[in-house]
Design a protein that fits this description.
Length: about 525
């Protein structure tokens, strides 16, 4: 699932907490800046281009962005798009006979000629719906079904808990919205400022807490943007969870895709709409990887010699394993050498199917970069899907799992939402208040998430592969991991709702933040 706008910190606003939920302004390109010269813990991209890559030749590398969609008309992306030169646009013919008609810039596995899926259920919802047919009204089961029944009961408990939490969160943010509207009416301005809230005399404890949140929030944001991006989208988020993600009756697959879902080997389905109904997340990811560095508008991506291939596999809900597997294969077959996967989920319908696709990518010398997830969980203990561990045993070698870091080189360096794991997460990278491209109107916005950290690493990997094209995917991974900036001070991690000080080396394999300057310097020494 792609957490499009929210991380676990939305709960803070629901609770009207005094904790500073809203972020302070960051330099719009901070992820590419240098810790020593710019005082933010970026990955030294700009320094690398200036000191190491200036005048060097590079070979364009295709990056597959497996996501919710990419806006191919965006001003900062249209010059860096992959184009399938074997396909003639919009002629209704599969010119290259690859099974995908008119796939000029990529493919959408979430649709058909009837349209495209926007919202989906969680994998938990789908698994529960499947198993309810067998276990819903059963109190005793045969011995051979005991394990499956126990799993069903655990899933049912998890589902009920998530429904209750979503209802509580929706009620909480709607309550906040109600109090906010009341206070704004009393202030008497349609768009009050931080100073207006500072001067407002709260009439009760609720208003006092709201005032604290709003004063902090509006120091760096307008009231209009705050209301749109935090309040209204918060309501929409939890409303969508209850209407779609956690709705046992909702199933758009048959109507809008029309594939034989039981057939995991089926590959030729979907349509060529790589944008889809909501491309905010995927467009943001694509911009982080490769927004045009030469056009003097918008932002600068990490990579300067990259072609973005959009492959739509992730709806507003959990991605399906069949679509993930097919998306990986599509990207590989069409030349991607780096694949970004900014999605994940807690359950898997057919992990073996995804494993086979990952093995296929490994056999074709492709590097997979995966976001670690936004639940502040230790993924050494709580499994996140997909992952590099094969069900049959063994691991995917050219596979990087990425946690999210902040700009500050202190105890708050780990983004509070980011998953972590001493053996399951490889590296950390900037994933906090990252400014990038969003659809419609050539717009830009700042998002938080490991979804933003992964494309920072994917962009770095693509840069290495473009300037040193003879390096293998395994070598590129090795270079990225060996060249991190080590973090030698402890960081704060919330464990069971209590702050715990941990060495950064306990959060990931490398104990550091990726660094483009170090990586490219090291790459030059490889033969």
């Amino acid at each position: 699932m792609i957490n499009r706008f929210f991380t676990g910190r939305m709960r803070l606003i629901v609770a009207l907490s005094f904790f500073p939920f809203f972020t302070f302004a960051q330099k719009s390109n901070w992820q590419n800046l240098d810790l020593k010269t710019d005082s933010v813990f970026g990955i030294s991209t700009e320094r690398a281009y200036k000191e190491l890559l200036k005048g060097k030749k590079a070979t364009p590398v295709i990056v597959g962005v497996l996501d919710g969609g990419v806006d191919i008309t965006h001003e900062d992306l249209k010059s860096v798009l992959w184009v399938n030169k074997k396909e003639k646009p919009d002629n209704g013919i599969d010119d290259d006979k690859n099974g995908y008609k008119d796939d000029v810039n990529g493919w959408n596995f979430l649709g058909s000629e009837k349209g495209s899926i926007e919202f989906e259920t969680l994998e938990l919802t789908r698994l529960l719906r499947r198993d309810m047919k067998k276990f819903e009204n059963v109190s005793e089961v045969a011995k051979e079904d005991e394990a499956a029944y126990a799993q069903y009961k655990a899933m049912k408990a998890d589902f009920d808990k998530q429904v209750a939490e979503a209802k509580e969160s929706l009620a909480g943010i709607e309550g906040f919205k109600f109090v906010l509207n009341s206070v704004v009416k009393k202030i008497g301005k349609a768009e009050p400022t931080a100073a207006d809230f500072e001067q407002y005399k709260a009439e009760n404890e609720m208003e006092t807490r709201l005032k604290s949140v709003m004063v902090n929030a509006l120091k760096e944001d307008s009231y209009k943007d705050f209301y749109k991006n935090q309040i209204q989208k918060g309501v929409d988020h939890y409303d969508e969870m209850l209407k779609y993600n956690l709705n046992l009756e909702y199933d758009p697959r048959a109507e809008l895709v029309g594939d034989d879902y039981a057939n995991g080997r089926e590959r030729s389905y979907g349509n060529n709409d790589v944008k889809g109904p909501d491309a905010s997340h995927g467009t943001h990811v694509a911009g982080i990887v490769a927004a045009d560095r030469t056009n003097n508008i918008g932002i600068k991506g990490v990579a300067d010699k990259v072609l973005i291939m959009g492959v739509r596999a992730v709806p507003g809900g959990d991605e399906r394993d069949k679509d993930v597997a097919n998306s990986i294969r599509y990207a590989v077959d069409n030349g991607a050498k780096v694949i970004n996967m900014s999605f994940g989920k807690a359950y898997s319908w057919d992990k073996e199917l995804v494993d086979e696709a990952v093995k296929y990518a490994m056999s074709k010398d492709v590097l997979l970069v995966h976001a670690a997830g936004n639940d502040n969980k230790n993924t050494d203990v709580e499994v996140n899907y997909p992952n590099r561990n094969y069900l049959s045993g063994g691991v995917a070698g050219a596979y990087l799992s990425v946690g999210a870091s902040t700009p500050t080189n202190d105890e708050s360096l780990k983004a509070d939402f980011s998953n972590y794991g001493k053996t399951s997460v490889d590296v950390f990278a900037p994933g906090y208040q990252i400014n990038s491209t969003i659809p419609d109107g050539n717009a830009y916005a700042k998002f938080n998430g490991t979804s933003m950290a992964a494309p920072v690493v994917a962009g770095l990997a693509a840069t290495i592969r473009s300037y040193y094209p003879k390096l293998t995917a395994l070598q590129v991974k090795e270079i990225i991991m060996k060249s991190v900036e080590k973090v030698n001070h402890p960081v704060t991690v919330m464990v069971d709702e209590a702050p715990v000080s941990m060495p950064f080396s306990d959060l990931c394999v490398t104990g550091g933040i990726v660094n483009a300057y170090n990586a490219l310097k090291l790459a030059a020494t490889y033969k």
